[in-house]
């Protein structure tokens, strides 16, 4: 409580400083603004609740202005969710007195039985994800080769293909360089997925309505754990694609076979990267 109280005093001081100003120094974002925004980002998400934020509106308007500029802040921190309820510190566990053990009569030792693991066995696969990446990326005739792979080699009960769509926030799709930074930042933080997945992640559409979407394939029929651990994956809508459904197959073909400046699901592809 003491630390939060001291933090609030500092924020109130900055709120007074920002009265009638757009930025701390001058008329544009400077290193001073960026340093302060980085300093208060996590406290705003954990400890500064709405009643207090309403008291420091100069500070909050400044914070929105700085963190939205060019998309660089969000490409590093991800989208910061503001606190709705102050996070309470964990309480120390209560000591529980253990009852004294009563001596039990000795029992005859029984031979140990072999126990089988309750974990589901992973079905063996013939798909080598690294070979598939090289195959589809270097293929001179991607459409025909993809069709052959899906028809003859794709294991429907062992692998799955998913459509990922980022939930664009405010002006994130207004400028190509901002949207591209968000797309690249997502892939940079998805490094743990490279060994077990293949995906094409794209910026599609036109300014100011750009979108970030991708089609990924991984082993397993549910969302891969490495993606669930991704810091910004919660902002993505997902759909498992059925390779036997013509509409779903068209989405896979568009994302995996078409290039920059071509139409993907009816929208111009502006940037394309793979994982």
From TrEMBL:
Annotated GST C-terminal domain residues: 1-93
Origin superkingdom: Eukaryota
GO molecular function terms listed in the Swiss-Prot or TrEMBL record: translation elongation factor activity
Record's keyword annotation contains Protein biosynthesis: yes
Region Disordered, residue ranges: 90-121
Cellular component GO terms held in the UniProt record: cytoplasm; nucleus
Keyword Magnesium among record annotations: no
Keywords: Elongation factor, Protein biosynthesis
Biased composition (Basic and acidic residues): 94-121
Domain spans labelled EF-1-gamma C-terminal: 112-275
A UniProt-annotated Pfam family: EF1G
Protein name (Swiss-Prot/TrEMBL): Elongation factor-1 gamma
